[in-house]
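[job 4471] stage=fold_predict status=RUNNING
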Amino acid sequence: MLVRGFVGDAGLDFGGFAEVLGQGRTWRIIWQTLWMALAGTAGSVILGVPGAYALYRCKFPGSRVLRAVASVPFVLPSVVVGVAFRALLGNGGAYEALGLDGTVIAVVLAMVFFNFSVVVRTVGTMWAGLDPRSEEAARTLGASPLRALVTVTLPALRPAIGAAASLVFLFCSTAYGIVQTLGRPGYGTLETEIWVQTTTFLDLRTAAVLSCMQFVIVALALVVSNKMSNDVALSMKESWPKKVGRGDLPAVLLTVGVVVFLLAAPMASLATRAFQHGGGWSLENFRLLATAGQGFTGGVSPIEALGTSAQIGLQATVIALVIGVPVSVVLSRRTSGAIRVGQRLLDGLVMLPLGVSAVTVGFGFFISLRNLLPGEVMVPFVQAVIALPLVVRSLVPVLRAINPRLRGAAATLGASPMRVLLTVDGPFMVRGLGLATGFAFAISLGEFGATSFLATADRTTLPVLIAKLLGRPGADNYGMAMAASLILAIVTAGVMALCESLQPRAQRGTGSGAGVTLGRSSVTAKSPDAAAPVASAPRTLSKERKP
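[job 4471] inference complete, writing structure tokens
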């Protein structure tokens, strides 16, 4: 990608950058990408911080259900979210009267839908571990609840809020699926423009320049994240949720409203529209999934596409695990000096696909390997690359939680390095493999951005086919998109729920010990280095909270 952007026929050449950056369209798209990402970030933080307090510091009937519902959107494929908002805001939807269908506001709301849980989990985990005595001391000295919150609690939460905001900005600035399914042609972002330049105009150099610009935005976001997430000495203490008081009602009511009207409503509308056909309740949309759809002269059916997605998902999962397990072992070892620097470099390279857009990853595969490998062969590999960071982030905290003295004792008793790996690390690793496998398979099932570059007509995945169905006129195609999206959502969420249920109890939720929260948000472990959310979240999150 860099070569395409910087090197011309005569060698190093910045003319392509100058030409692309000299166009007004380019800067309009960059600005549109930035302000939409900022709006999505602001909405997620404004709603997510009160949600973190209500769901992690307050105890009330239904709080566990609300926390579970708040976690679901993050694991859903972006195409499913886009279709769900189309069902909610479009003709016949519950929010049709708002007139938001096809507007940029719909895209921003979908971004908040996706990332609300990132803020809630990242901030809530830290909030649950703050020592309450600091706030109690401020109240004793006469501070009102609001002043204690502003002067004591929020400054202590600044690293977590900054890390969460940086993560959300990354995810919003690289949101391809929801922009593609919700926005109109005038609402392009860097991601959609890369796709347009590649597939419509066949202008690979312009696409490469835009990809480089997106990489610059990601790098700047990471710098800001590092600056905002510097270590802060905090007093951490296990604190139990308290009963809701009068002063807690605004945060609780706001959170309930967000969960019901912003998070649950789109999925409820999707389920409702999937069972409606011809003005009444029917299973016709699901029956049509065995066909190629109205107006198609050929191609695969959604049922065949689901089978292809599952097959590719299994292949991508195996590839991600084959690479991720050895990498996790290397990254989990406590080292120093030059080896430690090498570990950090390797960790940064492995995490890179998580911060860089999936469209950029797919575009890189497309321009570098399209003359060597057919697209259907590249799809499992590109999906494995995208899933690899989550596999590593699922395994490294588990391995770092192992007491190094166990390995030393085994080696002293004569065990070879391989036997130490199998008998000491192996049983611990099995605890994280279930979640790592679930992340890899679920990410592969719902991956859309990179696959849209590489999927062929006879091996189309279900997310790509859903987008095609939405782009075709006809009530049957629309109904099939709803039904297929509902099935994809159920399968993806089911895979993640099953893998989470197989985890040992100590590794679930937000307690101490090695555990993983939502894949792209944060990782909590006994090791300080393993606890930081991707993109440099605060190390203070990692402080072990002893019972």
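[job 4471] summary: The longest helix spans residues 24-56.
[job 4471] exit 0
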